Amino acid sequence: MYVFRNLTEVRQRTESWMTEYNDERPHDSLEDLTPWEYLAKYQQAESSNQRCN
After folding, report:
1. pLDDT score recorded for residue 3
2. Which residues on neighbouring strands pair with residue 33, listed in sequence order?
3. CA angle 9–19–42, rounded 5-degree value
4. What contacts 5, CB < 8 A, 6 or more positions away?
5. CA-based, 20 to 30 A from 17: which of 4, 40, 47, 50?
6. DSSP secondary structure string for all residues of 3-52
7. What is the per-residue pLDDT for 48?
8. How buried is residue 38: exposed, middle or buried, by Cβ count under 10 Å (0-12/13-18/19+)?
9. What is the per-residue pLDDT across 1-35, written as a single tens digit (0 to 9) for each?
10. b/e for 1-37, b at 16 or more Cβ within 10 A?
11. What are the angstrom distances between the C-alpha of 17 and each of 38, 46, 48, 50?
């Protein structure tokens, strides 16, 4: 449990948590990769497929 000093602190902590939760942690639905790792993997696979055509 947190005790917040003011509403600004609540907003900052919430924003920080949302960023970590959505962007920095691995997701089961993305093969346990972070969204950025998954994107890089997808783009690498896509670019290698384009070279074959």
Report:
1. 86
2. 27
3. 175
4. none
5. 40
6. --SSHHHHHHHHHHHHHIIIIIS-BGGGTTB-HHHHHHHHHHHHHHHHHH
7. 80
8. middle
9. 668 999 999 999 999 999 999 999 999 999 999 99
10. eeeeeeeeeeeeeeeeeeeeeeeeeeeeeeeebeeee
11. 20, 32, 35, 38
